[in-house]
Amino acid sequence: MNRNELARYIDQTTLKPGMTHEYVAGFCEKAKENHFASVCILPNMIETAAQVLEGSDTKVCTVISFPLGFDWPDVKIHETEDALNKGAQEIDLVMNVSALKSERYDIVDEELEGVVKASHGKGAIVKLIIETPLLTEGQIVKACELAEKHGVDIVKTSTGFSAMLPRSTSVEDVRLIRSRVKPDTGVKAAGGIRTTADTLAMIEAGATRIGASAGEEIIGGL
């Protein structure tokens, strides 16, 4: 795999609070130069990213209900619609983990149905963040079933929000998700992936996207 091929796996990510629009614009310029798959930014930076990335092969990705995922479905759906109207092309939705663990699948069904419908209606893809570090193997399997039920495009391991998580994403997480979704459903590994070796291990396990804030270092490691 060469540098350009590896770059197409990476969602170059910056989700820290307090960033300026000037910083995000510069971040997007570098991502565009490296031909990363997308730039993943907070919703308040969508328009800045869209302006910089217009006409490039690097997509505008944003997060919905980040990082906790506990907003009610109607809030998540409205936030998604607003993000799409501002220029988002990819949606990383944080699943309501509490609802899943409580077996309130009706809540997860409602948020997925609404967010997927809104996104696909605008030609955008949906990545569902299921937060594997907080789930049992059985709960990960159930989350994958719900994702497939509603036509989610990519199942994503984690927010990588380390302050609330007991561990980072593992290769085993990726393998489990890959074994439980259809071949044409993507798998995004995110959370603690900082090196070229980490990235290649996740890809070997079945990841089709990598969420990382160290994209330049990762492709530079080749």
Automatic annotation (TrEMBL):
The family database entries (Pfam families) matched by this protein are listed as: DeoC (PF01791)
One biological process GO term for this chain?
Answer: deoxyribonucleotide catabolic process
Instruction: List the subcellular locations.
Output: Cytoplasm
**Main subcellular localisation:** cytoplasm
Identify which top EC class this enzyme belongs to.
Answer: lyase
Reactions the enzyme catalyzes: 2-deoxy-D-ribose 5-phosphate = D-glyceraldehyde 3-phosphate + acetaldehyde
Recall the GO molecular function terms of this protein's record: deoxyribose-phosphate aldolase activity
Could you tell me the EC number(s) of this protein?
4.1.2.4
Q: Would I find Chloroplast among this entry's keywords?
A: no
UniProt-annotated catalytic positions: D92, K156, K188
Q: Which UniProt keywords apply?
A: Cytoplasm, Lyase, Schiff base
Biological function: Catalyzes a reversible aldol reaction between acetaldehyde and D-glyceraldehyde 3-phosphate to generate 2-deoxy-D-ribose 5-phosphate.
Q: Which HAMAP family match?
A: DeoC_type1
Which PANTHER family is this protein grouped with?
A: DEOXYRIBOSE-PHOSPHATE ALDOLASE (PTHR10889)
Matching entries from NCBIfam families are given as: deoC (TIGR00126)
Q: What name does the UniProt record give this protein?
A: Deoxyribose-phosphate aldolase
Task: Identify the taxonomic lineage of the organism of origin.
Answer: Bacteria, Bacillati, Bacillota, Clostridia, Lachnospirales
